[in-house]
Every structure is written in C-alpha cells, then in structure tokens.
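Working notes for the structural subgroup meeting. M.R. asked for a predicted model of this chain before we commit to crystallization trials. I am recording the input and output together here so anyone reviewing the notebook later can reproduce the run.

Input as submitted:
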Amino acid sequence: MLVANARMYSVEPATAEAWRVVLTWVADRAAVPMEIIDHSGPLDALWRRDDLGCTFMCGYPLATWDEAQGARPVPLAAPLPRSSDAQPRYRTCIVVEARSPFGTLDELQGRRFAYTTPHSQSGYQAPRRLFAGRAMREGRCFERVVGPLVTPRRVVDAVLAGDADAGPLDSYWLDLLSRHEPATARGLRVLATTPWTPMPPLVCSASVAPLARERIVRALLDAASASGLVEALDVLALDGFARADADTYAVLAAEASRVDALGYPNLQ
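Returned structure, recorded in token form:
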C-alpha cells in the first residue's frame, strides 16, 4: 500500500476534500492501491518516505536532493492552474496587509519580512532571488526576517496580525485562498510577483515499480477529461495535469547558485 498526500495545496476544508476525491480517483484509475494520509509534521520527512505513491513536493528540494540520504523522489505530473494559462508554472506573490502604505518593493527596505522555510522555492528561494540586487546595494534588505513560519497560512497570519510587514505566497495557494476564503484574501494586497517557475510536482518514491509509476502518470493525465472530477477540479481551479520530469526543476538549483555567487546566501 502506497500513500498519497496533498497537504501543500489543501488550503482549507473544501480544497482538502477535493484533493481527496482527485487522489482517490487516480489510485482507482491506475489500479495502484494508495491510502490518502494526513501529515502534520515537516514535509521533508514525508518526502523521505519510501512508500510515496502520489504526493506534492516543492521543486527546490527536488532539484537539490542529496542522494546520499536516500533516492530522490520521482516526478509524476504537475498541476495546470487556470491562473497560469493552464501551464505547469507558478510564481511567488509578495503580499502586504491590504491597508498598509507600502507601494513598491523599495519601500520594504528596513522592514520585517516573513518566510516559510529555506528549502521552499516560493517561500524563500524566489524572494531571495528577487531581493538579491537590493541587498547588494544596501548591505541588507530587512530590519528582521520573521520565520521559519513553515506554512503559507502562517505567513498570512503574520502579515494580517502585523507581526511582519510583508511575506511570500505561492501564487496557486493564493488563488485557492482567494476562491475559498475571500474575506481573508481581501485583507492582503499583492505588491509584486516573481518570474514564473516550474509548478511543484506530484511525486512517487523511486522504489515504485516503473509500470505502476506510469499507470499513475496516465491516470493524472486522464483526470482532465474525467466526468467524475469536474466538480473537484473546479474547486481546485485546475485544468488538469502535465507530465513532469526531474530535469525541468534543475533551473531552480541553478538560480539559487547564482544568488549564492552574488554573496546573498540568506534573506536578510
């Protein structure tokens, strides 16, 4: 029995249930037994399990995986969010409290910036790249960085509570928040966005047999035309999935290395 999990994009109960419906359908269609599990601990512990059947994984840790600590998970497919023109891509939105006076990124100089965790592309690496030039000119960008907050939800909470002046949100995660918690989303304002990068993929463990792996991929690709998933995909604002491969995510490691070379290894 393999396991499946969509915690990364289970923004609230409706999206969590829609992912359960989609992943259950995929397991049945692929004829690969999978248990839909909850996972409240660190996501890197989930990704290191050897029984992953279909689980979301951030692209940055996938691209920088240390094979000495176990085989790297295998990308299966990536979502096609409607807000990204149905392409497997997303970006980071830098958000502030809706009524705050900030109008440009330069106005965040010397302020408090929230982050999720350094191994997150959207929650750390993309903002690090965005602010690198400013940090090089000024010596540092922020009075203080607030974190690790681990999840996008806690970044939202920190900005709305005034514990941080700004923070990063995965654009697809923000899409889902806006759709299902509009009152919360209205409390935020997008100040800037980063360039598009490859969408986090669904992955399986390297130990999953190639035939079973391909059946799971085919099921994900077939999801867009499944009559039984129309409602769930609408809840998730998705047009379906596209096949993913590890080489696609190498750009994230290369971008991080370029920012390292500038002398800005950490948000500060």
